[in-house]
Every structure is written in structure tokens, then in C-alpha cells.
Design brief:
The complex is a heterodimer of chains A (494) and B (255).
Chain A: H1 2-14, H2 23-54, H3 60-82, H4 100-112, H5 115-134, H6 139-169, H7 171-189, H8 195-208, H9 214-233, H10 263-275, H11 277-290, H12 292-297, H13 306-325, H14 336-341, H15 346-367, H16 376-401, H17 423-446, H18 449-465, H19 467-490
Helix pairs in contact in A: 2-3, 2-5, 3-6, 3-8, 4-9, 5-6, 6-7, 6-8, 6-9, 10-11, 10-15, 11-13, 13-15, 13-16, 13-17, 15-16, 15-19, 16-17, 16-18, 16-19, 17-18
Chain B: E1 2-11, E2 14-24, E3 29-33, H1 40-47, E4 55-60, E5 63-64, E6 75-78, H2 90-100, H3 105-113, H4 116-119, H5 135-145, E7 153-157, H6 165-181, E8 185-189, H7 193-199, E9 202-207, E10 210-216, H8 221-229, H9 234-239, H10 243-254
Parallel strand pairs in B: 3-8, 3-9, 6-7, 7-8
Antiparallel strand pairs in B: 1-2, 1-4, 4-5, 9-10
The chains are: A mainly alpha (494), B alpha/beta (255).
Chain lengths: 494, 255
């Protein structure tokens, strides 16, 4: 039975839409996974010498033990926001001839193999090996230690689910736990009782008496049973398996009405962005990347490299354009058929998308004016880049959008989510960023900084003047690809 | 008037639709029936220019649908849930479609008032996104949205499926009134033979993309359809090539 469930799992992974059918994406994902694994592996190996360097007077292992509780707390917060138990996936199994407890066991045990649990494994175990080799601690004590910390980590894994499942509905039942955690944190913070240090003493005991590693194992097991029982009670369509529904407040974005013809779509797009997880994050990312410039403008390393400033300029004013624009019109994938058969000429639909992106560039540029603090030059660069984005990059993204044939689920988190990503998304980065940088660099080297900027600006203005013509050409392209897009967007599955 | 000539669609060497000639006069109420894979949705999708025909053309009021977008102004449709915008509430969706059809909010509000009974208090003012509505309620929204702005042509793919009995009865009246009172051309597909025969004045039966029956609805139609679908004739047609049944269809029409 477990074998069957595992094979289901494997299929859901390899056939998921975000994993994609393209080989390039697969290779990229594998590369990312390997990259992170290696980084953490090296962190595990390097931890010992690093600790030794920072705390030359202490034994690194004992020092680490003092930090473990803090680390676990951090892990819990991290997991709380990032990791969730995929209970909804088991809905189809509800009616099958499998006992409930078996399904729940499977889901819970499966969660142990998640990315978040493999990372600590990659840190703790190499660290333990290094310690065992370099110091007097025996292999047995290090094995005991590794088992302890790993199972503490796994306990956090289950504890997180417990919080999520209980916390979601019944805040009161969880109140005692919150109070305990806050008290512990308070005691630590105000130096009343060094809780984390005291906790480290337990791990020190494990080193002396490795059989004590049984305690975290038992702890982990208790959490497991607790979550399991909680889940079992919630294994109903109207309980744990229900997807959340909130009462909706109607917003109309009436102020968009003044934009005339395209306002209908602007209103729709605003709703799209505010009411769906994935597009909503692009807004937060935009605000976040607005600060990205600080990295460049404060760092003296880049002073002699105005090309980097241009890069920052394109990025700051165009981050929403890049994040949102590269998936136009996949955002409307779920109802693209309707859009295509409604009383909307293609040209108008595209014009509204271009308008939305253009507004974002203008707004981000206005928001970035405080950068004038770093000099008028900086502001000039950002403004020129915004002009280039408006004139050249917007039509460019609209054009590459016509090659988007992959559906996007609006409600999925965008992190590590490559759904909707195809070759077009990768290829567009080259003309989007590399071309303006290249042109600027060329004229900057040949003539001067000002000439380089001027050329970028002029290109932008030309693009703006040609906007109507370009949009006509783009519309033809969309009409040509229309059927393939409709077909592509119909391919659901994840 | 809608005309399809030499219309065909081929997927991987299989002909899924093959219509020599089909003419739907203005104001007619046409029912499309056929088993799964008969090509009903394919035909509708082509009529809406969502799928490109392999050969042939469809004309909607003399407009070639895959050449001009002008048919969109007078054609409305509801094929499936992918015609709904999941993150809007029902009202917002109606207003949105209304704006596309040059109807202001007051127009829409008074338009919706006549469907109060049809909605049965489950659609308006529920403060729910469309994606959170039940399948039946989603369907109600989609169907009513397709009637906004007095379209001349209305296309509904399986409008009766997923609806509760009361709503089915009310929907039948709405569809009948559409062609009788407002002179709208209505195209409906259904698996429910009773519903179609009650609602439609003409019924076209598709089998594997070919028109095998083209009937003017009468007392005997339901019986005829039931005999046809009970499979008595299917074995012969199974062996025959695609041309034979279409000839038969022509013969039917000649009568």
C-alpha cells in the first residue's frame, strides 16, 4: 500500500505543471536543488572552524549547543510561514479502500522528506563528522548528538503542523503554548534565565550519555501521535480538507474610471492582483526591490561602473514590469477563452495590459525619487531607464507574451514556483536587461556617460512614439498565436 | 444567420468534426445532441473562434468568424467554468460583462432583477468569489451573463447539467422565451433528450463529428431520438465511413 502511495507521489511530482515538461526547466530545478544541497553541506563542514574562530575560548560543539534552542525557534517561525501540510492532496483517497490512519501516517511521514528536513540533515551530520574527527568526542556520542538534534528538528516539523491545524480554528486552545514560548523568549531576551544555554546542557548530557538521544525521539513520536489524532478528527470535507473561504468585500477601484476605454480591464487587473496570492506577491516584491538601489548607490565598488547604475535603474523602475509583464497574458489563463469570445477587440485588451504596466513604471519611478539623496545623476539615470522601459521594454514584454502558453494558478505562492515559466521567460531577460546595458556601455566607452544615457533615453522616446504601431504588430502576433494559447491554457494539472 | 460550410477539424489524423453544410436561420432555437466526443463543444468552440477549423468556414451574420472580430458584439456564450473569472463576485462579474457590452450598472441591476427567481437567492449579495460557488450556481452565473445586452446569438454548452430540477425548469422557459419573444438565435447542446426536445424547435444529432440527424421537433422527435441513442442503429454506422451518415442527414433534411 505504501508503495502505491509512493508511486502516486512520484507521479504527482514528475507530472506537476510547475515541474514542467521542458527539459531546460528540469535541469534548472535539479541545478538549484544540488546548489542548495552543496551550500548547506559546506556550511555543515565549515561550521566547526567558523565557531572556533568566533569563540576561540570555548569548545565549538558546546557553544553550538547553547544556540540550538534559538535555532529551533527560528526554524519553527521559518517553517510556519513556508511549510504546509498538503492535506488537500489526500482528498481523492477519502473514498478508497485505505484506512484513514494509513493515509495520515503517509502524509505525515512524507513531510519528513521535505526540503526543510533535508537541509538540517545536511548541516548537522557533516558537522558531527568533523567534530568526531577533530576532537576527542567519540563517534558514539556524536551519533547520539546528531540523532538528538535531528529529531528535535523533526519535532519542530510536526509541531508546526499542530500549530497550523489547531491555530487556524481554535486560538484559545493554543494560548498556553504561546504563553510558554513567549515567557521563555522573554527570560532569554532580558537575560533573566539563559534558557537557550540551559537547553544546551541537555545536549551536553547527550554527549556524555548517548542513550539519552531517546528523549528527542520520544518527543518527536509524541508530537507525531498528537498531530495524527488531530488530523484524524479533521479528516472530513467540511473540516481539515476544506479550502478556506473568506467573506468578500467588493472593491470597485472607481478612480480607475478616468482612464476611459481601458478602465474596465484596469479594474479587473487590480482585482486580479489584490485577490490572488501569486500576483499579489509581485506587488510586495516591487516595493522590496525599490530598496534594491541602495545596494548599488551606497556601495563604493560600483562608483566607477555606471553600467551597474543603469542596471539598477532598469530594475527599480521596471521590477513590476518584469515580474508581472513576463506572464502576460497567462494571468488570465483560467478564463482566456471567455476573454477571447467576449466583446473585446484584442487590441484593446493588449492596450489595457500595456497601460497597467506603464502605470507601474511611472509609479515606481515617482516612488524612487528619494534616491536623489545620492545625487541628481542617480535620479537622471532612473528617469532615463524608466523612459527606456516605457518605450522599449513594455512592447517587448507584450510581444514575448504572445509566446506564453502555460497556465498559471493564481492562488499558488510564487516562491520556487516555475509554473507558467517557459523558454520565453528565460530568453526575454536578454533583450530586457542586456540590450540597454550593452547600448549604454558602448556609447559610454566611445563617448561619455551623458551620451550613453542620452541614447538610452532617445530609444525610449522613439519607442513611446511608435507605441501605436508596435501595438498593432503585437496584436497581429497575438491573433496568430491565439489558438495555441487557448489550447495551452486549457492544460491544467499540477 | 449562422452558416457552416465544409467545416472540419482534424486532430492527429482523426476527424473530430466534419460538417458539409449547416445553416441556422435567425431566431431559430437549435439543439445539438450527441454522445461524448461527438463534436458538440468543438463546433461551438469553432463558432466562437477558439479553435481554428482544419478546413471550411463558419459565418455568423455573414462575418467569417476567424477573420473578423465583429461577431463578438452580438454573440454571447457560456461553454464551461473557464468562462468565469474566479476571483470576482457574481455582481462584479455581471458588471464586468455588462461594461464590455455597453451596459451601465443600472442597466445590469434591472436586467438581473428579472432573474431573481432563477437565482433563488443564492447568487446576488452572497459575498463569495465565483470560484467558491457550487458548480450549479457557477453555471447560473455563466448562463445569465451570456444573456446580458440582448445578444443576437446565444451559445450555451450543456446548460442543464449540474442544475437542480427547479432551475432546469426555469431555464427551459428562459431559453424558449429568448427565441420566441426576442428573436434570438439560440444554440444549446445537451445530453438530456427530454430537455432539448422540449426547448428546441430543431435538433441536430452529431456522431463522431458528423451530422446524422437533422430534425424539426415534433411529437415524435423524442421517441426517434431515444431509438437512435438506444443503439439500435449504431452498429451499422460504426462500420460505415464518414460519408454515409452525412448523406443520410441530407436525406433527412430533404424530407
Amino acid at each position: 500500500m505504501v508503495g502505491k502511495l509512493l508511486s502516486l507521489e512520484w507521479k504527482s511530482f514528475t507530472r506537476s505543471a510547475s515541474f514542467g515538461k521542458s527539459l531546460g526547466l528540469k535541469i534548472f530545478m535539479i541545478f538549484l536543488a544540488v546548489y542548495f544541497a552543496v551550500v548547506f553541506l559546506f556550511m555543515g563542514i565549515g561550521l566547526y572552524p567558523i565557531l572556533k574562530k568566533i569563540y576561540p575560548d570555548n569548545v565549538p560543539l558546546l557553544k553550538l549547543n547553547e544556540f540550538i534552542l534559538g535555532w529551533l525557534a527560528f526554524e519553527l517561525i521559518f517553517r510556519f510561514f513556508m511549510q504546509s501540510l498538503p492535506v488537500v492532496q489526500i482528498k481523492p483517497l477519502l473514498l478508497q479502500n485505505i484506512r484513514k490512519s494509513k493515509v495520515i501516517n503517509f502524509v505525515l511521514l512524507k513531510s519528513l522528506f521535505s526540503f526543510y528536513n533535508i537541509l538540517p540533515l545536511l548541516i548537522y551530520v557533516p558537522f558531527a563528522v568533523v567534530v568526531a574527527v577533530k576532537t576527542d568526542y567519540t563517534a558514539v556520542s556524536m551519533i547520539g548528538w546528531s540523532i538528538s538534534v535531528l529529531f528535535l528538528s523533526f519535532s519542530i516539523n510536526f509541531f508546526n503542523f499542530l500549530i497550523k491545524k489547531k491555530f487556524a480554528e481554535d486560538l484559545k486552545s493554543f494560548l498556553p503554548a504561546i504563553i510558554v514560548i513567549l515567557t521563555l523568549a522573554g527570560l532569554e531576551y532580558f537575560n533573566i534565565v539563559p534558557v537557550s544555554e540551559k537547553f544546551g546542557i541537555f545536549l551536553n548530557y547527550v554527549l556524555e550519555m548517548p542513550y539519552l538521544a531517546i528523549v528527542p525521539i520520544i518527543l518527536c513520536f509524541l508530537f507525531f501521535v498528537w498531530v495524527k489524532n488531530t488530523l484524524k478528527r479533521k479528516f472530513y470535507l467540511d473540516a481539515g480538507l476544506k479550502t478556506k473561504q473568506k467573506e468578500v468585500k467588493s472593491q470597485d477601484f472607481e478612480w480607475l474610471k478616468r482612464f476611459g476605454e481601458v478602465s474596465t480591464f484596469l479594474q479587473l487587473d487590480m482585482k486580479l492582483i489584490w485577490r490572488n496570492k501569486r500576483p499579489k506577491t509581485t506587488i510586495f516584491l516591487s516595493v522590496f526591490f525599490l530598496l534594491y538601489g541602495l545596494l548599488f548607490f551606497t556601495n563604493s565598488v560600483y562608483e566607477g561602473m555606471p553600467v551597474m547604475y543603469v542596471f539598477a535603474g532598469i530594475f527599480i523602475s521596471g521590477i513590476f514590469m518584469i515580474n508581472f509583464g513576463q506572464f502576460v497574458p497567462s494571468w488570465d489563463a483560467a478564463y482566456y477563452q471567455m476573454i477571447m469570445s467576449q466583446n473585446i477587440p484584442m487590441r484593446k485588451y493588449l492596450a489595457s495590459k500595456a497601460a497597467l504596466i506603464s502605470f507601474s513604471i511611472i509609479i515606481l519611478t515617482i516612488l524612487s525619487t528619494p534616491y536623489v539623496y545620492f545625487g541628481w545623476n542617480i535620479l537622471l539615470i532612473i528617469f532615463t531607464c524608466a523612459l527606456y522601459n516605457l518605450g522599449v521594454n513594455v512592447p517587448l514584454l507584450m510581444f514575448t507574451g504572445s509566446f506564453n502558453k502555460k497556465r498559471i494558478d493564481l492562488e499558488k505562492s510564487p516562491f520556487m514556483n516555475y509554473q507558467g515559466t517557459g523558454a520565453a521567460q528565460w530568453l526575454v531577460a536578454i533583450p530586457l536587461l542586456a540590450v540597454p546595458l550593452g547600448i549604454f556601455y558602448l556609447f559610454y566607452k566611445l563617448f561619455s556617460f551623458n551620451i550613453g544615457l542620452l541614447v538610452i533615453g532617445i530609444l525610449g522616446v522613439i519607442g513611446i512614439l511608435l507605441r501605436n504601431y508596435l501595438m498593432d504588430r503585437i496584436t497581429i502576433q497575438y491573433k496568430k498565436n491565439k489558438y495555441a494559447m487557448i489550447h495551452g491554457y486549457k492544460q491544467t494539472g499540477d | 444567420m449562422i452558416t457552416a460550410t465544409n467545416l472540419s477539424k482534424v486532430y492527429n489524423g482523426t476527424k473530430v468534426l466534419d460538417i458539409d453544410h449547416l445553416e441556422i436561420p435567425e431566431g431559430q432555437n437549435l439543439g445539438l445532441v450527441g454522445n461524448n466526443g461527438a463534436g458538440k463543444t468543438t463546433f461551438f468552440s469553432m463558432l466562437l473562434d477558439l479553435i481554428r477549423p482544419t478546413s471550411g468556414n463558419i459565418f455568423n451574420q455573414d462575418i467569417t468568424v476567424n477573420e473578423s472580430e465583429d461577431w463578438k458584439t452580438f454573440t454571447a456564450s457560456f461553454i464551461d467554468e473557464s468562462f468565469l473569472i474566479g476571483y470576482l463576485t457574481a455582481e462584479e462579474y455581471f458588471y464586468f460583462v455588462g461594461e464590455l457590452r455597453n451596459q451601465n450598472r443600472a442597466d445590469i441591476d434591472s436586467f438581473l432583477a428579472q432573474f431573481e427567481e432563477f437565482f433563488n437567492g443564492e447568487i446576488i449579495g452572497r459575498k463569495k468569489y465565483l470560484r467558491d460557488l457550487s458548480k450549479g450556481n457557477q453555471k447560473k452565473v455563466g448562463i445569465v451573463a451570456a444573456l446580458i445586452g440582448d445578444p443576437k446569438v446565444v451559445i450555451l454548452d450543456e446548460p442543464f447539467a449540474n442544475l437542480d430540477p427547479t432551475t432546469q425548469i426555469r431555464l427551459k422557459k428562459i431559453i424558449k422565451d429568448l427565441s420566441e419573444i426576442s428573436g434570438t438565435t439560440v444554440l444549446v447542446s445537451s445530453h438530456d433528450l427530454i430537455h432539448v426536445t422540449e426547448v428546441c424547435e430543431r435538433i441536430v444529432v452529431l456522431d463522431k463529428g458528423v451530422i446524422v440527424r437533422d430534425l424539426k421537433t415534433s411529437e415524435a422527435t423524442l421517441k426517434e431520438l431515444e431509438t437512435y441513442f438506444s443503439g439500435e442503429q449504431i452498429p451499422e454506422e460504426f462500420k460505415e465511413t464518414a460519408e454515409a451518415p452525412s448523406e443520410e442527414a441530407k436525406a433527412d433534411k430533404a424530407e
